[in-house]
Amino acid sequence: MKKWITVLLMIPAYFVSGQSGIPKFLESTWKSENSEVCEHWNLLNNQTLKGFSYKIKNGEMIVSEYLDITGTDDNVIYTATVINQNQGKGIDFKLTKSDSIYVFENPDHDFPQRIVYRKQSETDMLVQISGGNQNSFEYKMKKQHEEFTLKDSTIANPNYDRALAEKLGADDYGMKSYVLVILKTGTNKATDKEFISESFRGHMDNINRLVEQNKLIVAGPLGKNENNYRGIFILNNVAGFEEANEILQTDPAIKSGLLDVELYNWYGSAALPEYLQYSDKVWKAKP
Known about the structure:
The protein contains 5 helices and 15 strands. The strands form 2 sheets. A 10-stranded antiparallel barrel has the order 1-2-3-4-5-6-7-8-9-10. A 4-stranded antiparallel β-sheet has the order 13-14-12-15. The termini are close together. Helices cover 15% and strands 39% of the residues. It is mainly β. It has helices at 162-168, 193-212, 241-248, 252-255, 276-279, and strands spanning 28-32, 38-45, 48-57, 60-71, 76-82, 91-97, 101-105, 114-119, 124-130, 137-144, 151-152, 175-185, 216-221, 229-236, 259-269.
């Protein structure tokens, strides 16, 4: 991998421990038999479903919430982001049972605490919502076969590309969360030139390895400064600082203490990974 600054999207592991993966049968448009409620789902890859719930009014699609089902090494998480609620933040529900019945639960949420998708046939499913102090309910949904071409009334950008936004994991503002890593001079004051050279050679090799594993999307050095900051990483699709630290400990220079790190949550454009197609066309010599 001949690049020091690079971008790739992270693709989570296919299978989830103790689970059978994500409910791929959802991919389609579904309509409730007894109301105007619909759900549309796109299967982005073997580990990710993106969807939204909506109603049709005067020929326009009125979106009420955005939905996301994502598999990781350990869990499958269902995230519901209701428009004009919870300050735009999604609520996570963890998969606790899967097969033809997919049960997602969050006992700490007020309502709902349990969301169930029960496949009844290739064209029918039952959705059950329950938990908390509010009444539980369920409704049947039927797969729709017409082409999905309705206008989304919540979209104000005439250049909006839904497929691209879903592929990149963008929120309504075209943004997403990353982990920003500040690399700085470490506490290890070793003077062994061979050890230092080997550690930083491993540091560079590890950058390429993390890129190939789709963990690292941006890396680069900083100019000399009074804070002893040496460079930055931007980690993509990392659950939090704990996972970020685990990833960073695979770097020999960081693990040995030649480099230390500071971690920050960073909210940036979801289109950041798109520069990859150009990054490998502009360098003449390997750093």
